[in-house]
Amino acid sequence: xxxxxxxxxxxxxxxxxxxxxxxxxxxxxxxxxxxxxxxxxxxxxxxxxxxxxxxxxxxxxxxxxxxxxxxxxxxxxxxxxxxxxxxxxxx
Length: 91
What we know:
By secondary structure, this protein is α+β, with helices and mostly antiparallel strands. It contains two helices and five strands, in the order ββββαβα. It has a five-stranded mixed β-sheet with strand order 1-2-3-4-5. The longest helix has 16 residues, at about 50-65. The chain starts with a strand and ends in a 10-residue tail after the last helix.
């Protein structure tokens, strides 16, 4: 799976046969990113596509020294299920 990151539009995307899956984020202060939306086309749900988008986004945040706000319910739940990434949470 090839995940693309566009820093200008603040999106991680992967092109699937059913369409694009996207994790969108926004700067939310100095060195803080708000991960506010995750979308996977219905035909590809349940295949860990969203999880891989979250992993890519968190890897980027960690590499760049950012903290994250998981406004998106899926990102929040994913971090709860993977507490090894809880150190990235802002506040």
